[in-house]
Amino acid sequence: ELPMSRQQIADILGLTIETVSRQFTRFREEGIITMEGRRDVTIRQRHALEALAA
Asked: Fewest CB within 10 A of the end CB: N or C in the chain?
């Protein structure tokens, strides 16, 4: 469970909430994560997230 809202994530990263939401959607569509509700996130492909962060 994410301990913060999408708005809080956006604020910390200096992004808009729309950008954060688009990335969550992209990650879901690519099978990198699954979500139930707004804060319950399961990482399915950790290596893919790590590669994006590198």
From this structure: C
Integer CA distances (angstroms), 18 to 3, 4, 22, 23, in order: 19, 16, 6, 9
- Mean pLDDT value of segment 4-18: 97
d(CA 34, CA 30): 10
- The answer as to whether 35 is a domain residue is yes
What are the two backbone dihedrals, phi and then psi, of residue 12, each rounded to the nearest 5 degrees?
-65, -40
The per-residue pLDDT for 44 is 97
Instruction: Give the number of domains in the chain.
Output: 1
Contact by Cβ (8 Å): 7, 18: no
Inside any domain, residue 49: yes
Say which CATH number the domain at 23 has.
1.10.10.10
